[in-house]
Amino acid sequence: MEAILTADEIRKAHERIRPHIRHTPLLRAERLDERLGCQALLKPEMFQVTGSFKARGALSKALLLRPEEKERGLIASSSGNHAQALAYAGRLVGAKAILVVPHDASKAKIDRTRALGAEVIQFEGEQSARWAFVDELIESRHYTMVHASEDPAVMAGQGTIALEVLEDAPDIDTIVVPLGGGGLLSGIAAAVKGIAPRIRVVGVEPALAPKYCVSRRQGQPTRVPAGPSIADGVKEELTGPNAYACIERWVDELAVVDERYIQEGLRLLAEEAKLFAEGAAAVGIGAVLSGQLQVPPSAKVCFVLSGGNWDMEKYISACNRT
Length: 322
Fold this sequence. Notes:
Rossmann fold; 6-stranded mixed beta sheet; 4-stranded parallel beta sheet; 15% strand; globular
């Protein structure tokens, strides 16, 4: 399987974006150890500019664009976090950003995207239809696509998280990553396996959106209908070929997690780590709580917390859901 990412490309991406992002802290979370059965470390990307890891990938791509590509305007489809990230990156490089989001996307994410100067189009329809609409806009208006999870430059930007983790804790044993479109997991896995291949890389997706787990079982990228998950940031139906190739090459294990354990993970992060996380950020914690992901007591496990961009009402509802 051909590699589309290397650790060297991820290092170059880090140099590009370093002046514009935050090196988020790696937090030792002793109060989580007993519940999780390991030595827990948290990488809180809710502290990142725009409130999620997505700024890394959007900037990595935007800073490579030619003047004519920026002049045409940047477009993407997103549930909200990539939308904010691309709006931020577009403003930084002087390019208009157009985001096509699901009709039920978080109001907070939409408002913040518009506040950054982007045009937001809410689309009612399934994910494949939304992408068809994006393709029509590109054909008719010649926008420049910045794909959230399939563009190698975006994936390299997401992989810069791993460089920071390895700098701050080179002795970790496992890194656990939320899995939606696959760009985050692909970038992190490429960096880890290129620098410290002994480290176990695990991707976790909601049981209601298990497209990569199904794809791995079937041996090919597979579309899997998604149910209504509180982890809306990783509620994807489509398996991207580039991300699939990276995940199959470098990711040691995939796991799924039920909604009740995502909810429990949210509450644990709030109560014991004092972190406001969105549902997608809690899937790795939830997988360990449920027993779907096994970690030995002596292991140093880094949980990537992908973001914290939620409506407060939705967050409260998710934490209280029974």
